[in-house]
Amino acid sequence: MKMQVKEFAEICGVSVRTLHYYDEIGILKPCEVDRYTGYRFYDENSLLRMQEIMFYRELDFPLKSISEILSSPDYDKEKALCEQKSLLILKKERLERLISAIDGAMKGENIMKAFDNTQLELYKKEAKERWGKTDAYKEYSGKTKAYSKDKFESLADGMEEIFAEFSVYMKNGASPDSKDVQSLVKTLQSYITENYYTCTNEILAGLGQMYVMDERFKSNIDKHADGTAEFASTAIEVYCGK
Fold it and tell me: What is the mean pLDDT of residues 135-141?
């Protein structure tokens, strides 16, 4: 059964724009594109592929790493599905604990154990160690393995400051291709390279797209001011196009 992009997006719970981006970067291509209308079509194999992508997104893998994993010649699809099932079971058990905790809280009981997420986090760690064989992920793991919680929080604050600067430029009417804004993009790229992994122009371009495609990133960036994510994404696009 073939589905048009809008229907496929609704089934998968993503935006049409996200699917267009996945097509653009090659991680999820439509099964067919009408040569006259340009309409994209997806099928059952597309759903399976999307399922695998969403599995790794649940484990917080970047899209570049997911693409490399799924394209690897030794990738075991059946094993990946078993991993997905295990993850979903753990999440289901946690939700059941939280539901029971609500009942307990209404009775005045101590419910702190219900928030214990140790098993799920251990599972994520093991899965990343098993599947995180890409160069970008290896570099990220090596560079951050000794980071403390305070260090991660400090780095997150640094990223927030950079996006806050983007919002200031935007509100002051600066153009995304202006010298100051382009300098800020370079600062962002250097910050990521210094603290996480080598942020090539290709990776940076992908991040710029993700800032507007992924609602979690978009809403977090736009808390500085509506439109900041789009402004930063456009500035990155200009920078990487040079």
Answer: 71
